[in-house]
Design brief:
- By secondary structure, the protein is α/β, with parallel strands linked by helices.
- The chain is about 40% helix and about 25% strand.
- It is built from 9 helices and 9 strands.
- Strands 2, 3, 4 and 5 form a 4-stranded antiparallel beta sheet that branches.
- Strand 8 and strand 9 form a beta hairpin.
- Helix 4 packs antiparallel against helix 5.
- The two termini are about 40 Å apart.
Length: about 230
């Protein structure tokens, strides 16, 4: 009986894992009304998820919009409107914050970077937070300067969920603790994953190099195998 319970818990955990590779084109066009949770892998139901969060007046959405405004200065709000059987996501760009003046732009008018940033933030802020979130190469189409904000959100989300991020970005690596970074290496046709080698950790601890600098110079190396 205990064995069956553990298998059931394991199955639930695996079923609740979420993997994200957000495509801006999936967010740009009007979307069909779809499931309200969870966010799908490429963001195909983002408008429905966003609409539900607005209906619930989720505090996570307010924080998401505030963070988006740090990455895309001037963005103060997002909305979802119906157009036939579709949903359209719109962004409010404020020209005069004191007077509340600005313009609403459809997602079709936004840059790839804005849309992908918004999709990644929604993946991290969706309510409730999935137990395990994987994000593939968040740096794609996003300005390097914005990655520090995204890294902070990833670290904050990791306090309530397990988050796995794949990246080649030195800028993103520089924002993450060296102890949470894992190096991936192909050896004799097999892929190995391990903690960063001790000599590289020591170099970071002594302030000689940052993780990103080591990645540029020689690549982050995994702890040598004991085989």
């Amino acid at each position: 009986m205990a064995s069956e319970q553990r298998l059931s818990e394991c199955a639930r955990f695996l079923a609740n894992m979420r993997f994200y590779h957000i495509f801006p084109d999936a967010l740009r066009e009007p979307q069909l009304i779809a499931s309200k949770y969870p966010l799908e892998e490429h963001g195909e139901n983002l408008a429905s998820v966003l609409g539900e969060m607005k209906r619930k007046r989720s505090s996570d959405l307010s924080e998401l919009i505030a963070v988006l405004g740090q990455v895309v200065p001037g963005v103060e709000d997002v909305s979802v409107t119906r157009a036939g059987g579709h949903l359209v996501v719109r962004f409010f760009h404020c020209d005069d914050k004191a007077a509340g003046k600005g313009i609403w732009l459809d997602a079709s008018q936004e840059s790839d970077g804005t849309l992908r940033t918004f999709g990644l933030l929604l993946a991290l802020y969706q309510d409730p937070t999935p137990a395990f979130i994987t994000i593939e190469e968040p740096e794609l189409t996003i300005h390097p300067g914005a990655l520090s904000v995204l890294a902070d959100v990833i670290l904050e989300t990791s306090q309530r969920s397990s988050v796995l991020v794949t990246t080649h970005s030195p800028e993103l690596l520089d924002r993450l603790p060296i102890d949470c970074i894992r190096s991936v290496e192909a050896v004799d046709g097999a892929t190995t994953v391990g903690a960063v080698a001790q000599h590289q950790k020591a170099a970071v601890a002594q302030g000689l190099f940052s993780p990103g600098e080591l990645h540029r110079m020689e690549g982050l190396q995994p702890v040598p195998s004991e085989d």
